[in-house]
Every structure is written in structure tokens, then in C-alpha cells.
Amino acid sequence: MIRESLTELFERDLNKLKEEINLYSDESKMWILKGEIKNSAGNLALHLLGNLNHFIGAVLGNNGYVRKRNAEFSDKNVPRTEIISNIDKTIGVIKSTLSKISDEDLKKDYPLKVLKDKVTMKTEFFLIHLMGHLNYHLGQINYHRRLI
Hints:
Layout: H1 2-22, H2 41-58, H3 69-74, H4 80-99, H5 103-107, H6 123-147
């Protein structure tokens, strides 16, 4: 049950990310920094995609994805169409990976030590954490778009 719920929520919120990216009247505005805003919406979108592809696709799905975390924050002016295409691919990765994970797998320790305050954590817990992380940055992107 939780797998299906998580899959549905990740898909819903990644589609919301596409909507936010498409709502920029000029795609160059996705890359603007202003005042104390240190991350552009474009870089936050790249970061979310790298994060989900790494922690779900590579770690849980063994799909060979190699994360380039520094590029998530240093790349600029990635075309909107490329970001949207990568969001769609990420939705596919999540659906494919989570469909192969059993309820028993969700109760196992997540294969990596990721959170500093947790020595070990269950896979289910970490997937819920990733959902919260996605929504935290999705809110920042929404705020960035309205501010700019």
C-alpha cells in the first residue's frame, strides 16, 4: 500500500514541478538569483532530479545513474524542454523502481547512510524523507517564480 501511495505522490508532485517550470513566462527567469535567494529555480529542479535519480534509481533500482551533484547547482540555462523531459524520465524511474520493491524491502535498512542524525533508517522512512525534500524545494521554486 505505501509503495503505491508513494509512487502516486512522487508522480503528482513531479508533475507539479513541470507545471511550475512551465509557468515561467520567460525560461531565462528560472536562473535568476535575487537578494538572499542563493539557488535558482532551474538549479533546484536539477537538484531534485539528481537527488531522486540517485537515491531511488541508482541506489534502490541499480539503474547505473551517476549523480553529478555539483553540476546540479553550477549548471545554468539548461533549456526548459530538457528539464521537462528529465522530469518525465524521473517519473518513469520512480514508477519502475518502486514497482519492483516489496513491502519487505521497505522494512529493510536503506543501503546508504545518508542522514547525519540517523545511523540506520528503514527504506520506507527514507522514501518519505525524499518526498518531504521534493516538496520543500517545490515550495521554494513556487516562491521564486512568484518573486521573479
